[in-house]
Description:
Chain A is built from two helices and five strands; from the N terminus they run E-H-E-E-E-H-E. Chain A is an alpha+beta fold. In chain A, strand 2 (26-28) and strand 3 (34-36) form a beta hairpin.
Amino acid sequence: MSLRVAVDRAHCELHGQCVERVPSVFRFTDDGDLDHLTEADDDLADDLSDAQFLCPAQAIEVGPA
Amino acid sequence: MTDVAGVTGGQAVAPDHRPPDRVVVVGASLAGVRTALGLRRNGFAGTITLVGAEPWLPYDRPPLSKQVLLGEWTPDRTRLASPEQLAEQGIEVRLGDPAEALDQPGRAVVLRSGARIDFDALVVATGAAPRPWPFPTPDTGVYDLRRLDDATAIRDAFDTAPRVVVVGAGFIGTELASAAARRGLPVTVVEPRPDPLAAQLGTLAGTALLDLHRRHGVRFHTGRAVRAVHGADRVTTVELDDGTLLDADLVVVGIGVLPNTGWLRGSSLELTDGVRCDGTGVTSTDPAVWAVGDVARWPVAGHVEPRRVEHWTSAVEQAGVVAYNLLRPPADRRVTAQTPYVWTDHYGLKVQLVGLAGPDDESTVLHRSPDGERFVAVRHAGGRVSAALAFGMPETLPKLRTAVRSGATLAEATALFG
Ligand SMILES: Cc1cc2nc3c(=O)[nH]c(=O)nc-3n(C[C@H](O)[C@H](O)[C@H](O)COP(=O)(O)OP(=O)(O)OC[C@H]3O[C@@H](n4cnc5c(N)ncnc54)[C@H](O)[C@@H]3O)c2cc1C
Ligand code: SF4
């Protein structure tokens, strides 16, 4: 059923490409921090892979849960 | 398939719809390596050859003027793909051997070594190179900043506490000034325009960024051009067109870039300020040749003429589109008109810009932080938003993107921050 999603917070630079591409998994909190689900449905594999590609900080990891 | 307004020349129709067996990608940097990896991601099983002029495996450039100059990252942190990953993906990499010519009728690329590489499809990803300096300079102490070895050389030169003069107050010049000032070095920036950064950010945000630099001790000579750089073999002074002499141990020139299209001269490709493409990434004149990244001129949302966008995300988006389209017949291809996005880092503050404003578009601040230092602004013309920028407020970016993409009115954009 699911994928594991992790963001390396030491690398993340808050470009928000992930928020833009997969809003169901990534979001910005009101105080400007990145927040994300740690598990996502398999259906989102392609979208998550796009987000990984688009992240300028190469901070997103996606793997089997 | 939707059509993008302003794309002329129409859809190039391949004589047959056979997908290619051999793809050659010229330019082993961001756009090139992402195209190669993207082809595999799309299931391409043929051969991929990635040709690069530089001796290094693909690496990322934005950190060069940021983390690498500050000494926060070692150069290997900038790597975009490991040798193992490239081998595993079946991508043959030929480094340090630039393409010198395109044999268009023969469907081959000719390298400096004399090697010929045949292709069914060619992706041009040769990027851009610093605009050459218009007059002679001393051998030592004058740099531009595009390659990994430029960044490490400047970083090392910082260690001897030099007096730094930056020529050109664009993103790269001012990021360099920020890095040097943070290292405690005296920095002077020379810029012929009276309002540095206004072309990129508008006068309002350009002025705010300049003020930030001034608060960190950077001095500016605006509306002044460099007349000469003096020094026998090592630079000693920079002379401005009003006669001012600036003492300098280290001069960094950031006066823009030109697309690397020299090796394509004589081909049928349209090469005026970059390789002209349609919104699918195929070149305007040859259905077997594609172009991506800084070297390519693609349609941009809201603009009639295709243009080069020298930004990281454009290179990545174009690589994704071409990796998809190159394997498909014209009728199944995706078309994009990109919304440009760029960021720049100064003293730990991130400025992010979405969209492409006209030079005369007005700026309006929509929101400010309580301390007044950070803000969100839009550029607009005729009541419509053309671009938006976040000055130290990355969390506002999704809203700004929505405003720019939808071509919001100024009132609608203001309401987003009400
Ligand atoms: C210091 C610096 C900081 C930057 N910061 C930012 C930033 O903060 N945000 C942002 O959005 N963008 C930034 N950019 C821009 C971004 O790095 C570029 O948009 C991106 O590198 C474009 O990738 P590319 O692959 O198209 O071109 P390039 O990275 O220029 O790569 C082209 C490659 O092709 C090679 N090549 C050239 N000619 C030949 C030939 N004949 N044969 C074979 N190979 C050839 C070159 O050697 C080069 O390796 C920055 C750029 C620099 C230099
Ligand atoms: S795209 Fe990458 S850098 Fe940007 S917010 Fe997402 S994880 Fe962070």
